[in-house]
Specification:
binds NADP nicotinamide-adenine-dinucleotide phosphate; about 290 residues; alpha/beta
Length: about 290
Amino acid sequence: MIQPQLIVGPGALGRLLAMRLSDLAPVTLLGRRPPPESLCLTSPDGQRLQRRLTGATPESLTAPFRGTLHLTTKAYHAAAALEGISAKLAPDTPLVLWQNGYGVQRTLTRRWSGPVLCATTSEGAYVTEGGVVHAGHGETYLGHLDGAHADLAEALAALLSRAGLRCQAVGDIDLRLWHKLVVNAAINPLVARWRIRNGQLRDRPFRPLVEALLDELEAIMHAEGIAPPAEGWHGRVWRVIEGTANNRASMLQDVLAGRPTEHDAILGPLLEAARRHGLATPQLSALYAAG
Ligand SMILES: NC(=O)c1ccc[n+]([C@@H]2O[C@H](COP(=O)([O-])OP(=O)(O)OC[C@H]3O[C@@H](n4cnc5c(N)ncnc54)[C@H](OP(=O)(O)O)[C@@H]3O)[C@@H](O)[C@H]2O)c1
């Protein structure tokens, strides 16, 4: 029997996970308010799937929960969301953190009594009234920040892959989170500030801004001892911009919808690393101040 899966944060990613996992495991979707009892998933090929799901709130969750907890809130809500239900969780509950950024991963890995895995995913999803659209398939990597709990990571990666979310357990999730952070930092705050699609970064006046940001990010990564991707930092970021040219980044969508953004989760850890190493970051600091 596959262990129960508790998904905390019934937004885009949480609904996607809940819907995809619900045929394989007992799933509970937990929100601050009761999540919808029935959800519709539209898959990338346009198929629609309707499921009834078990919903919960922090108050209604039955203690002690035994199973795996997937935390799918935005980074700035993650610590409070865990705190709000921690008394109802068995202390050895495995936690999977799905947030973008870096910060909360270290904090919760230190703080939580059970094993903590971090996931980085390029799956794309957004919420609709009564459901979720799985906009595009991607890759998910899963692992403990220090490479521990390899068996648990393997088992969860196999479960996610069976559920249709291609996932690989890795021993270097720390490196992968930094790599994703650099890509996000070079793209998201700029497109959100100027309200442009990713591809417009290729043109003036934005191209030199991306290059200047990349120079600062490269220096921070070098000082942190984070190895660059095989194609180099510039190569990686321009390839992502090319591949997502028509996209509106999630940070831009948050700005357009008047929601808070993950600005701090993305720029904060990089600025903190720059301060630790005494590096000047005029471009990054200006972006941070503008956000
Ligand atoms: N969407 C994607 O395609 C995607 C892809 C890769 C990575 N990610 C990352 O995944 C994370 C989640 O993204 P998302 O797009 O799914 O965000 P989202 O749609 O905003 O969903 C976040 C959900 O968390 C809920 N929440 C907040 N505080 C909570 C609490 N204390 N207890 C329970 N639920 C709580 C929010 O509900 P309220 O209505 O109560 O605020 C909301 O339903 C982000 O870090 C994002 O960067 C997303």
